[in-house]
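User: Reviewer 2 asked us to show a designed sequence for the structure in our supplementary figure. I'm pasting the structure tokens here. Could you produce the per-position amino acids so we can include them in the response letter?
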């Protein structure tokens, strides 16, 4: 069902449409971006530094100034395309995983990178997790259908869990981890008991899962798929009545009403303080949503290329989005002139903050 976008009163439709239109004219490009498609971006939780993973086999770290300008601060290499990147909770280390079947840890202070994990197939996802009564650990998800936990002080995984299929996406918030695999399986793991799956479900969406993002309060998660649809899911069964899905990243070509172009939802990012979230897709647009009010806050015009990944900075004042080819149209959709960049969008309060509920008359 489509719960965003519809609306009762026709009287204020034009006004609402104008208010919901976002502006990207003040967005600032990241200086010296990667030389190939961008697969993942991640902000430090402790400073204004952005890590960018690319198909050019490199991870780059940039420092963002208060005026939005940027400068490259460090770079390290993989032996294949880098597919995922994340930071340690204290902001001193960057971890990345890639098609070379390795995960690497980069120490920001020393400038040294070391291999810290390995799989039998490409590593699609890396996240740092805080275990109860234990030090921070690394979790890696791979196309070898395994999820592995790593104590970075030892060379072998401390545990692993077999997944039903290839791991496509995973996310962590507090004690919640959610893993999405091929064939639409979703595994929910309580990190208080990390070696067992708390709950397995099929995605409520009918087509391939592209991205999963946990709510900041760990009460649930959002799922995006290739069918231009997003689902909101709560972990606790008592809240199942609050689950819903909605259409997004779709368009009707000019002059037609019977044809709809459907685009993949590639990225979902939650605002760190407001709890609202963004979606971005192969149509080259991004939108901000309020899941509790079931309302779209802002929609933005096409940025001139597909958006493969997005991220908010630590206080939600910057929304970063990559513009580079995501292969959604196969080889024929690519060209040497295709844009390849990361843009920094300054967040105004009315863009991502939930709106007060309308007063009943």
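Assistant: Here is a per-position design you can include in the supplement:
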């Amino acid at each position: 069902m489509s719960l965003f976008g519809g609306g009762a009163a026709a009287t204020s439709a034009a006004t609402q449409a104008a208010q919901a239109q976002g502006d990207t004219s003040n967005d600032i490009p990241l200086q010296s971006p990667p030389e190939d498609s961008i697969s993942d971006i991640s902000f430090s939780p402790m400073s204004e530094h952005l890590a960018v993973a690319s198909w050019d086999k490199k991870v780059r770290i940039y420092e963002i100034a208060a005026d939005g300008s940027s400068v490259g601060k460090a770079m390290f290499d993989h032996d294949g395309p880098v597919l995922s990147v994340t930071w340690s909770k204290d902001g001193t280390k960057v971890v990345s995983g890639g098609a070379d079947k390795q995960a690497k840890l980069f120490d920001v202070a020393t400038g040294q990178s070391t291999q810290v994990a390995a799989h039998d197939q490409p590593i699609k996802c890396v996240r740092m997790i805080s275990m109860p009564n234990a030090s921070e650990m690394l979790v890696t998800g791979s196309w070898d259908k395994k999820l592995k936990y790593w104590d970075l002080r030892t060379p072998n995984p401390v545990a692993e869990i077999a997944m039903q299929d290839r791991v496509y996406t995973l996310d962590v918030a507090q004690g919640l981890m959610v893993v999405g695999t091929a064939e639409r399986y979703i595994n929910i793991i309580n990190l208080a008991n990390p070696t067992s799956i708390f709950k397995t479900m099929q995605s409520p969406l009918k087509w391939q899962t592209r991205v999963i993002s946990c709510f900041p309060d760990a009460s649930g998660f959002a799922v995006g798929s290739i069918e231009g649809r997003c689902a909101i899911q709560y972990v606790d069964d008592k809240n199942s009545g609050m689950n819903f899905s909605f259409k997004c990243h779709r368009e009707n070509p000019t002059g037609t009403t019977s044809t709809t172009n459907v685009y993949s939802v590639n990225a979902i990012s939650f605002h760190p303080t407001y709890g609202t979230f963004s979606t971005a897709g192969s149509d080259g647009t991004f939108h901000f949503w309020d899941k509790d009010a079931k309302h779209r806050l802002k929609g933005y015009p096409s940025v001139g290329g597909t958006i493969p990944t997005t991220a908010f900075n630590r206080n939600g004042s910057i929304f970063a989005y990559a513009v580079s080819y995501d292969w959604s149209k196969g080889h024929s959709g690519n060209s040497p002139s295709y844009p390849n960049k990361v843009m920094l969008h300054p967040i105004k309060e009315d863009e991502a903050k939930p709106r007060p509920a309308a007063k009943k008359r």
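For the response letter, you might also mention the following. The radius of gyration is 20 Å. Residues 16-325+338-348 form a domain with the Methylamine Dehydrogenase; Chain H fold (CATH 2.130.10.10).
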